[in-house]
Amino acid sequence: MSDLSDLAEELTKDLPLGARKVIDKAVENGWELNAPGMTVVIRLNHPTDDLAAPLYVCWVAKRTPKGKIGFNFVSASTATMVPMRPADVLEYLEDPTVAYTLAEEAQAEAEAKMNNPPWDDKAELTVNLKRQLGAEIIAIESDFQKPKRETAEDIMKRAQAKMEASASQATASPAAAAQPSPARAPGLRVGF
User: Fold this and answer.
1) Is 164 inside a domain boundary?
2) What's the rounded Cα separation, in Å, for the pair 63 and 125?
3) What is the pLDDT of residue 143?
4) Residue 78 CB: number of other CB atoms within 10 A?
């Protein structure tokens, strides 16, 4: 484990040139650390225990109001996606088998799924929604009108009516016909 301490110590001394360039460019252009601080993630492996999946632990490192560096736990999980709390991490480091589901627990989960299927086509909509969402449904608005889909004939009739209206307007007022309407300004294409 001294490798981990050594690595942390070395990281604070000299940053690689690529990382230094990014930080310098960020400072030069007015960037700052995000409000929570800097994320620190470590990956731990156990080289001799086949049951131990790699463990990822994530903290946010930030300065406290007194100017010291503080670490706030964010998350942890194994490479097999078993989420853990800080106490779980310590327990897992002692005994990696705690991350595995026991046969009784797996059987109880399977029975729960069979007793509570995700969707029943024969049940009412509110029953299925309650089962899925876990909440009481107080109202469902299903009285909506689908917009009527226009046929080609409807579009042609509407276009013909517009052409007749604009022709009758042109004969009634020749000055109005010379002025383009705002909807038909030159270069503006209006679809029906």
Assistant:
1) no
2) 52
3) 52
4) 20
Residue type, 86: P
Q: Are 56 and 43 in contact (CB under 8 A)?
A: yes
CA triple 69-90-104, angle to 5 deg: 145
Question: What number is the average pLDDT over the span 185-190?
Answer: 46
- Side chain identity, residue 68: K
Within a domain: 46: yes
Domain-embedded: residue 37 = yes
Q: Please state, as a whole number, how many other Cβ atoms lie within 10 Å of the Cβ of residue 76.
A: 21
Q: Order of strands, edge to edge, in the sheet holding 55-63?
A: 38-44, 55-63, 69-78, 83-84
72 phi/psi in degrees, rounded to 5: -110, 125
Per the structure block, which two tokens stand in for 89?
A: 């991490």
Report which listed range, 99-103, 109-113, 150-154, is most confident: 150-154
Parent domain of 52: 2-99
36 lies in a domain? yes
Q: Mean pLDDT over all residues of the chain?
A: 75
Sign of CA dihedral 57, 61, 64, 66: positive
Number of domains in the chain: 1
